[in-house]
Amino acid sequence: MNASDVRSKRAILEPLKASSGSNSLTNTGGLIKTLVIMDEVDGMSPGDRGGIGALLEVIRSTQVPIICICNDRSCTKLKTLGNVSYDIRFSRPNKTQIAKRLLQITAKEGLQIEPTGLEHLVECAGNDIRQVLTMLEMWARYSSTLSYADAKGSEKLFRKDANVMLNNFDAAGLLLRKEEMTKRNTKERMDLFMIDFDLIPLLVYENYLTAMGTVVETKTLEKLVEATESIAFGDAINKQIRSQSEWGLLQAYGMASSVEPGLKSGFGVPFPKFPEWFSRNSAQKKNERLLMELRAAMAGFISGDDEDILTDYIPLIYKLLMQPLKDSGREGVNETLELLETYNLTPEMFKEHLIQLQFGTSTYEEEYKALPTQVKSAITRTFNTNNEVAPGTKSKRRPPGEGGSEPEEEEDPVPPNTAPARFDPEIEETLPVAS
Fold first, then answer.
1. How far apart are CA 237 and CA 73, in angstroms?
2. CA torsion 200→206→208→211, rounded to 10°?
3. Number of domains composing the chain
4. Are the C-beta atoms of residues 84 and 56 closer than 8 Å to each other?
5. DSSP assignment of 69-130
6. What is the mean pLDDT of residues 69-95?
7. 348 CB contacts (<8 Å, ≥6 apart)?
8. Which residue in 100, 135, 166, 368 has the most C-beta neighbors within 10 A?
9. pTM of the predicted protein model
């Protein structure tokens, strides 16, 4: 089954089951072996919903070999499939290996080709076997011999686009090397940016300081300022492109974010470092989610915007929660729980939200970890005991006592924006509740 075929659960489950029997009978009564090949299994689209699951079901029950071919072995969709398969990985062959195999093919086709000439063709094609075969087929229409001189003379006709053979890291490395960029015109520089206009600006930003070198001079600092300003200007253009769909600014974005900073950097880097933006962006998204959850929980008990929560409420509430535990240990658990209950918080929010959303997170994490295990366990255990019913829900009716002929009445839901009163009201009056 090819990548162009529909490979949903319905489309492949029955055909695969039908063709994956132990043997298949021919019309003449003989037996033939059966083989199932799934090409580009990592390319199953959302339209192929359930296809991987159906394939796994067949693999677990069949006696027939099933070959699954993929381009991206790290694809998350293949994680389960890899656990029930024998993993065979292929590396890209070098030009000597390709030329050796092609010599066997050309010999059977009656062509006389010098090995060095064939290696030169393979190098021009970027080790693309199909392109080399196409070249040889075209050449064989006019001549049955090919020497190194012929291959060298026809290099322009056979050479593959150099940018196609570059990956993102190679392109960013070239952009950060002034010596290399001065040999290229503006179009060739922009072609490097266009290899991946999403990732390459991030690679340039991550590595342009390293490409400046370690020598601190006035001229170097001036170039650093110019490169940084150019990157900042590129960010402004990128924002305009993404928010207003003004893709006509893409060329200007490439010049500002990648080409100009590279020309100012000069020395280049041996191997560009992967952008840290991805991990930091992931952390930012997580913090935004934690802040939203925290604000929703305390919505009826606090006032102010997100900045007020981050700078005023979180540090103070965290300090008030920790103080009884550090001073009194297990004896201070009830006082901490009362404050958690006042602001409609949970122990999970205490140990995650209130810590992750503070500057110097690692310090607060270590402080919380330093608490005795018995104290942290007592917080969770006592909280769960006192909160068998979640706020806003009804309790399960259970028979009172051992006999339990009549169930208890259901608790009324807690009205919104009111603090649940499960502790002594006199104690609650002394707790700081924001208006």
1. 36
2. -110
3. 4
4. yes
5. --S-TT-GGGHHHHHTS-----PPP-HHHHHHHHHHHHHHTT-EE-HHHHHHHHHHTTT-HH
6. 82
7. none
8. 135
9. 0.54
Q: Which CATH number does the domain housing residue 238 bear?
A: 1.20.272.10
Report pLDDT for 241: 92
Q: For 339-380, give the DSSP string.
A: HHHHTT--HHIIIIIHHHTSSSHHHHHHHHHTS-HHHHHHHH
345 contact partners, CB below 8 Å, separation of at least 6: 294, 297, 298, 317, 354
Place of tokens 């010596």: 179
Question: Which DSSP state fits 43?
Answer: G
User: Quick one: pLDDT at residue 29?
Assistant: 58
Question: Are the beta carbons of 302 and 343 closer than 8 angstroms?
Answer: yes
Do 256 and 289 fall within a single domain? no
Q: Which of 38-42, 295-299, 421-425 has the highest mean pLDDT?
A: 295-299
Cβ pair 196, 292 in contact under 8 A: no
pLDDT of res. 416: 43
- Angle CA(231)–CA(237)–CA(238) in degrees, nearest 5? 85
Average pLDDT, the chain: 77
| 94, 222, 384 from 157: Cα distances, Å | 22, 44, 75
H-helix or E-strand containing 36? strand 36-38
Residue 404's pLDDT is what?
41
Residue 375 CA to residue 330 CA, distance in Å, equals: 5
**Residue with structure tokens 């991990």?**
279
Q: Per-residue pLDDT tens for 144-198?
A: 888 888 777 776 666 666 666 677 888 888 888 887 788 888 888 888 888 888 8
**Residue 201: predicted pLDDT:** 92
Q: Which domain does 250 fall in, by range? A: 164-265
Tokens 């030169």 locate to 120
Same domain, 303 and 424: yes
